[in-house]
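#lab-general

N.A. 3:47 PM
ok so I finally got the sequence cleaned up, no stray characters, all 142 residues accounted for. can someone with queue access submit it? mine expired

B.Y. 3:52 PM
send it over

N.A. 3:53 PM
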Amino acid sequence: MDNLDLRSAAFKIKKAVYEEMILYCQQALPFEACGLLSGMRFNGTNLWKIKNETLKSNRFSMSKESIELTSKNANKMGEKISGIFHSHPSSPAYPSSHDIGNTPYPNLAYIIVSFYKGKVEVGCFQINEGMVTPLKLIIVEE
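B.Y. 4:20 PM
back already:
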């Protein structure tokens, strides 16, 4: 999978994709949901829902085959994988120590949809060699 270099401090996501991502994560409760985002450069223009192979409330994993197939499908559309998303059913929208220690794609945006204390909160980050850098998440109409 080609990684993007997020030198910008912001990640743009289409409003419809953002809303679909939150709904998908809500529907997976009490388990974590996960998937990928694709687009051009630092954008999330398409949502790719991927089965959480772990099916736990505090972990997620995507099969290598699912990631590769999604990357190929995005490439056919002229896009690249630009982000990874997952939910935190009962913890804040910040990467856990497990998230930080298991980041195979340091140049992608990591989006966390949290339902901590019944509130929806979405955080966006870049995680590289144990360092977490917040990214501004910009929701765009199109």
